[in-house]
Amino acid sequence: MINQFRNLNPVNLLILFAYTFFMRIALFADLPAQLNFEFLESYTRFFIKIPVQGFFSPVSNVFFAGIIVYIQAILFNRVVNNHGLLNKPGFLPALMYISGASLFMPFLVLSPTLICNFLLIWMMDKFLKIGKSPNAIMIMFDIGMIIAIGTLIYFPFIVMLVMIWLALLLYRSFNWREWISGLVGFLIIFFFVAVFYYWNDSLSMFYKIWLPLANKFPSVFKINYNDYLVLVPVLVMMILAIVQLRENFFRSFIYTRKAFQMLFFMFIVSAGSFYTKPDFRLYHFLLCVPPGAVLLAYYFSNAKKRWFYESLFLILVFAIQYFLFV
Questions:
Q1: SS3 for the chain, per residue?
Q2: Angle at 165 between CA 163 and CA 167, to 5 degrees
Q3: In whole angstroms, what is the distance from residue 2 CA to residue 7 CA?
Q4: pLDDT value of position 164
Q5: Which residues contact 106 (CB under 8 A, 6 or more apart)?
Q6: pLDDT, position 71
Q7: 0.85 cut: is pTM over it?
Q8: Nearest CA among 309, 251, 294 for reference residue 85
Q9: Measured between alpha carbons, how far is 147 from 247 in angstroms, rounded to an integer?
């Protein structure tokens, strides 16, 4: 199957669509009586009222989540190919994205992080353009606004502001205008939010939006390891990808090296931002799928022993299906 997706064959679009819903068989086979979908944060629902609560039946919820993942996979695939992060263009990034977005049951339904992944993929595209642009002020300004929109949907997305300065450190020499332009773009969106709260005599509620940023990062985690055994083949692939990347690191273009460093930081920031959400849920880690999928695609695009990498991918698919059913 991996060899099939190493090429830009249009037939792969149909196979990917079928694969997207194949990975959801377990949920379709045993649908919950109700699936809630909270599209916006409470502070956003104060001025934007979208009645999606109870709007989707369980079947339509899972179906539209699958459609969204498929569209995101195609967009993600295009970004990776356009920026030449792999040896040659193909559909491996899309395949890895759909696989990563199917790891856990909460990933398979509509969630705010699923919507935010559209913004994250858009941000990835803009970050990868920084090194090629003579002036990054407008790019960083746009990214700041994208992060603000994502924060209105899902608060932990605000931590992506850190990526603005990490990316600038990686790609560009210091320019104070570039360093503040992203923050200005972010603040413009929330300036209008503050004005709305002020007009409605609710400025104290606006202040409460930022309180989760003061949360302490947890030092103790309660983990049921049996729930995460499906990550074992993913971790094996990640390790192999890192080894592969290390071997080719100094033979790669400087642009490619910096791109993978940026994606590594994006993965860490996405994972670590969960502490800002008091009612943290597993679907938060959908934000890790785009940067993680690039690394997995890199391994499979460079792997040599077909029997090994094809078997490894099949083990991943069977593991996902097994743990979804049990």
A1: CHHHHCCCCCHHHHHHHHHHHHCCHHHHHCCCCCCCCCCCCHHHHCCCCCCCCCCCCHHHHHHHHHHHHHHHHHHHHHHHHHCCCCCCCCCHHHHHHHHHCCCCHHHHCCCHHHHHHHHHHHHHHHHHHHHHCCCCHHHHHHHHHHHHHHHHHCHHHHHHHHHHHHHHHHHCCCCHHHHHHHHHHHHHHHHHHHHHHHHCCCHHHHHHCCHHHHCCCCCCCCCCHHHHCCHHHHHHHHHHHHHHHHHHHHHCCHHHHHHHHHHHHHHHHHHHHHHHCCCCCHHHHHHHHHHHHHHHHHHHHHCCCHHHHHHHHHHHHHHHHHHHHC
A2: 65
A3: 10
A4: 93
A5: 281, 282, 283
A6: 96
A7: yes
A8: 294
A9: 34
Token pair recorded at residue 170: 């990686």
